[in-house]
Amino acid sequence: MKIKVAVLGATGMVGQRFIQPLVDHPFFELSCLAASGRSAGKPYKEATKWVLDENMPEGIGDTVVVACDPKEVDADIVFSALPSSIAKEVEPAFAKAGFIVASNASTYRMGPDIPLLIPEVNPEHLDMIEVQKKNHGWDGCIVTNPNCSTIMAILSMKPVFDAFGIESAFVATMQAISGAGYSGVKSMAILDNVIPFIGGEEDKVETEGQKLLGKFNGEKIEFADFKVSASCNRVHVLDGHTENVFLKTREPCTPEDVKKVMRDFKALPQELKLPTAPENPIIVREEPDRPQPRLDRGAGNGMSVTVGRVRKDSIFDVKYTVMGHNTIRGAAGASILNAELIYKKVLNL
Amino acid sequence: MKIKVAVLGATGMVGQRFIQPLVDHPFFELSCLAASGRSAGKPYKEATKWVLDENMPEGIGDTVVVACDPKEVDADIVFSALPSSIAKEVEPAFAKAGFIVASNASTYRMGPDIPLLIPEVNPEHLDMIEVQKKNHGWDGCIVTNPNCSTIMAILSMKPVFDAFGIESAFVATMQAISGAGYSGVKSMAILDNVIPFIGGEEDKVETEGQKLLGKFNGEKIEFADFKVSASCNRVHVLDGHTENVFLKTREPCTPEDVKKVMRDFKALPQELKLPTAPENPIIVREEPDRPQPRLDRGAGNGMSVTVGRVRKDSIFDVKYTVMGHNTIRGAAGASILNAELIYKKVLNL
Amino acid sequence: MKIKVAVLGATGMVGQRFIQPLVDHPFFELSCLAASGRSAGKPYKEATKWVLDENMPEGIGDTVVVACDPKEVDADIVFSALPSSIAKEVEPAFAKAGFIVASNASTYRMGPDIPLLIPEVNPEHLDMIEVQKKNHGWDGCIVTNPNCSTIMAILSMKPVFDAFGIESAFVATMQAISGAGYSGVKSMAILDNVIPFIGGEEDKVETEGQKLLGKFNGEKIEFADFKVSASCNRVHVLDGHTENVFLKTREPCTPEDVKKVMRDFKALPQELKLPTAPENPIIVREEPDRPQPRLDRGAGNGMSVTVGRVRKDSIFDVKYTVMGHNTIRGAAGASILNAELIYKKVLNL
Amino acid sequence: MKIKVAVLGATGMVGQRFIQPLVDHPFFELSCLAASGRSAGKPYKEATKWVLDENMPEGIGDTVVVACDPKEVDADIVFSALPSSIAKEVEPAFAKAGFIVASNASTYRMGPDIPLLIPEVNPEHLDMIEVQKKNHGWDGCIVTNPNCSTIMAILSMKPVFDAFGIESAFVATMQAISGAGYSGVKSMAILDNVIPFIGGEEDKVETEGQKLLGKFNGEKIEFADFKVSASCNRVHVLDGHTENVFLKTREPCTPEDVKKVMRDFKALPQELKLPTAPENPIIVREEPDRPQPRLDRGAGNGMSVTVGRVRKDSIFDVKYTVMGHNTIRGAAGASILNAELIYKKVLNL
Q1: Among A88, A106, C23, C304, whose Cα sits 20 to 30 Å from the Cα of C224?
Q2: B153 touches chain A (CB under 8 A)
């Protein structure tokens, strides 16, 4: 049984990323594309400048865009690819009006009753939806996915956290230009260059993980007790965030131990065979020079993260490099996987 | 009074980098270009394919290249831009024959009686030359400079080490393609990509610093007691290595403390006004998005390192980003500055 | 009925490009991978360094590589991805031994009895095989495809040539780095740069077209009477050659005329529904800023060329830009399409 | 004797390019920086985001920006780096108020009484200033420089035009991203790509040359009788436009003839030793793979164009490649050289 879904902010680059996987999706029927008032009323192909390397799926271009208004949107789940400033008002309005909002925006991620979800990491946090509905008197709800850099880091840490505990993690990122949106990084800024700063990014990477790996006690999340320090950089790569991770674990572990728990890692989305869940959430490679964004970002249709160079650390316990597709696993694909889990475990379809 | 200097390995990219600063140098007269037997006997312009963006200095092209043989070379100091495998035999042969070898090769850096020198960091290690001569029965000597990534990291840490002590340092590097030599990185490997591995690099960054910050006790170096963990990456930048540094200090310190000691840092090369010593070895910038390799690698004619984003760390004490020109401050310029210090303090000219 | 095929030079980048389309091919069974003596005897995964963005197809890695020797190779058709210097001796040896050689090498392209083939352009040139066999006393034969830049230019000109005639053509190319092979272009050479020269390329573009558009008179090719002038440049693009074309036609024609004949263009491979023949050999786009290599190189699985900006020329009659995937339509895919045509029209299978 | 000059549009990228050469200029004193009302009243360092690789010259940052209003600007010559839409009203207002406007904007280039000037090409067109003043009743005047791509093409053609005549010229350009201004080309648009279109560019290249090489008959310009056809492309290069040129001359000539007249070419700016005039306006190189933008854009401090690959053409007479720095010789430097010529020949200083 298919349910209707809509994309809010459908004309931006992440909005475009939502469309292809939702065409011919086994759970979802893409019924509506919503965007700002300026775009409303126009056929999608006129309202957006398509920027993905793959062509726009057939038939989508003639869909008439509607405003991001609950009264205009006919859907059960809405995906939010809105900028955080717009999401602030729009997402609660949809939740109030009874929609399930699967949001990629950062606005409500840290809200005390908002699930911040990676389906392989903390599916049980979906139980918080009931608390949220009660707190706000909403018929619908908001479920968020983390920041793109957080996802790669925490998804790769999850099996280590479960097996050995984590006390501290340093994360140095080399992030793709697509993470800033289509117009975010000027070519004159990044050609032959590195920009060692991404506004707001380090704070997200340093704080979201504790919520993700925290425990829902029936009322609220008890944050996991570990520290993350991040240094975030923009490099000249189209798609794919690469991250150097240094981990201090609570129990001793060897690089071989870490590789084993990562390779063996399967979680609820794999059990439920959710449509976009990759067979292996974490792919561990043995070549000395992998992962590489151009070569590995397509793994698992962009939904697997690839880990390599797992080795002993001279200060902490272990270090490795993780890489994942920032606008698929780190954005649109993350929200869609959240919605697939909701379809099964909340809507019980 | 000018003394004669020669470049060994003059036809490679780092060899080329040596030439421009040695033309019209106040201490040195570039008397000889030496390279492999294949090049010997040819005019320099035919023996080398000039790859630097600046043109070859006038008059150099007609110099006839000689073999890397002490009998062929007429000079007091020889700069070694040789590959480490070649340096292994050639450098001791020159030292034995009475030459001062200022080497950029990694071969002898960690030798127990070989100075590993950054003139602003450990000029007193030059005293080890006497021990070296005695040990080997050489008339000459070998003095080395560190790996390019080590130099940026340790030069920036030096004033912090002196003021507050350092217990541990994580270093994640984003290194320029020129660091691998002209042919080292294929364009198909690095376009739209990051390569999270550089052979042998991490080991150098993790071990050279303890020698550089160690104490010469009249006999040997007592290595400094701190740990470094590195993760080294190649990014799509022509020149300029960018490094994220996370420091655990022995005494408490604030970001403002760190910036102050870095800004105030001047050392013997500045006092002696060595010709290529930059006025400020460390430039500290306040803009949130600096240093950037394309914008900052030319600072101090490529001999200053630029530090930015000095901020409190959530696990250790302080974190920052440092960037420097890898083939100037990190290679040819490093050896030349070493030789300038030798000119003043060893040859007493 | 499937016949056996082999790849000669299977370990190079173009050799790798041959493999994926030959796995599960309806006409061909990939029975053998051949390479230099150095690789022979090794499993393919050890003999080659896989450089394509897509992973090596499953099961191929364990195939043991054989030498490029007719006695070692069990196949009906051999694809030659050999360097032209090696092809010089190897290809005739295979032809003599009864193999059909579908070659991407430039060595024999201009041979008077060697078909130089683009299946959409001059399929009737295959008739020359009989002449060739007689001339050389071979049981097999050699069939070649043109240079990658020639293919994009001449495939796009073919319908114009047929409809209006062509007197002269200027072609300025902007060619991808993959055209030089994996190690051909150093990153230090091309980053932030254009190299306005590709050895031997202009001569190929200026001479191959007259043979391709010539007539086979039963004995030899009467070359088409038109002139091409080329200026070939290397630009910083992974795959996809972009070419500015300026045409002087024999009959007057408008840009609309040209677009129509290009759009309507279908040829024998489309009629025969050859497995890798694209539905549209030439895709004409109306957007002002297409074709672009990153966005259009995948069209028709890399086998369509994309034309845009068809407009009136102020000196000649019409000008346009054409772009195609240089290692698919311009190399491996070209040879495979040739072989598919041979399968149908020569082997009559 | 120094005269006062101002920059209109000083906060944009081309505006920034004007500043460095005007600091310590022997003819000019930079007295005023003007920009839009939004910037007026602010210190320059706050009004602009400095984007050049070289640092902002000392002392400039504290200059208070004024509005682009003749009453606010104290100068004899104003350089216009304004967008063409703004230049439309502002430049005549300044000319009317008695200023000499040296403009890089395209707005008035083709005006019948407006000199379109390359000092090495058509210095005698400055005589048109008197006609212009009379026509408009202005005390001042407007003098323009051509489009950046036109300058490289026509400067290189000038000695050929004088010696052999030119009937037709095809020009295919590969233009740097800086030509579109700092924010003009998004990194997601150009990474691993070519954009075969630049709005309005081809029309400029096809029409400006006839005016530049035309004759001023005391009243108006008699346009030169030759045709240009252009195809303009954006490539992934920071600075430096590379152009393939194919020439049909009126008199026969060999590549050697063409190289000789280019090499021998000196003009009035060289005779007058104007401060920014390069010793050689055209540098001819013999290496097969030059000019290259990264290696040659700095020639003559960015004011020389470099020509290479001069060779016989198979359709026309001769073909070659020319490259020059688009924001120096092609923009700010062009206007400054114009002003230097005005200083000597119009102001007779």
Answers
A1: C304
A2: no
Q: What are the pLDDT digits (tens) for C281-317?
A: 999 999 999 999 999 999 999 999 999 999 999 999 9
State whether D295 and B192 contact (CB < 8 Å): no
Report pLDDT for B200: 95
Residues A101 and A194 in one domain: no
Of C52 and A203, the structure prediction assigns the larger pLDDT to A203
**Nearest-CB residue to B192 (from D191, D294, D295):** D191
**Subunits touching B (CB < 8 Å, at least 3 pairs)?**
A, C, D
Contact A81, A328 (CB under 8 A): no
Instruction: Round to whole Å and give the CA distance between D175 and D182.
Output: 14
Distance between CA atoms of residues A193 and A199, nearest Å: 17
| Number of separate helices (H) and strands (E) present in chain B | 11, 14
Residues in B closer than 8 angstroms to A290, CB to CB, are: 196
The answer to whether the peptide bond before residue B26 is cis (omega within 30 degrees of 0) is no
Are B205 and B245 part of one and the same domain?
yes
Model ipTM?
A: 0.95
CB D258 within 8 A of CB D200: no
Nearest to B148 by CA among B112, B173, B115: B173
Contact B35, B13 (CB under 8 A): no
- Residue-averaged pLDDT of chain C: 97
Half-sphere exposure of D43 (CA within 13 A, CB side): 6
DSSP 8-state code for residue D181: -
Q: What is the pLDDT of residues D73-116, one digit of tens each?
A: 999 999 999 999 999 999 999 999 999 999 999 999 999 999 99
Q: Average the pLDDT over B239-246 and give the result.
A: 98
pLDDT band at B199 (very low <50, low <70, confident <90, very high): very high
Taking residues C120-145, report their average pLDDT: 97
Question: Is C238 in the same domain as C205?
Answer: yes
Do D102 and D202 belong to one domain? no
Provide mean pLDDT across the span B184-193: 97
Same domain, B62 and B152: no
Token pair of C124, please? Answer: 């009737």
Of B142, B169, B172, nearest to B154 by C-alpha is B169
Shared domain check, B76 and B41:
yes
Indicate if the pLDDT at residue A53 is higher than 90.
no
Here the CATH number for the domain that contains residue C82 is 3.40.50.720
Per-residue model confidence as pLDDT tens digits over D9-44: 999 999 999 999 999 999 999 999 999 989 999 999
Distance, CA of C179 to CA of C181 (rounded, Å): 6
Query: Of the residues B148, B232, B253, B325, which is catalytic?
Result: B148
Q: What element of type H or E holds D30?
A: strand D28-35
Beta strand pairing status for A100-103 and A66-67? unpaired
Same structural domain, C175 and C143: no
**C241 a catalytic residue:** yes
C-beta separation of D248 from D169 below 8 A: yes
User: How many residue pairs from chains A and D have C-beta atoms closer than 8 A?
Assistant: 46
Residue C162 sits in a domain of what CATH number? 3.30.360.10
| Domain coverage including residue D199 | 148-325
Query: Who among C191, C192, C294 is closest to A53 (CB)?
Result: C294
Whether B166 and B299 map to the same domain: the answer is yes
- Structural domains in chain A (count): 2
Percent of chain C with pLDDT over 70: 100
Cβ contacts (< 8 Å) between C298 and chain A: which residues? 53-54
| pLDDT attached to residue A187 | 97
Burial class (CB in 10 A: 0-12, 13-18, 19+), D186: buried
Q: Which residue of C has its CA nearest to B183?
A: C186
Q: What is the pLDDT of residue C338?
A: 98
The shortest CB-CB distance from D192 to any of C192, C237, C313 is to C237
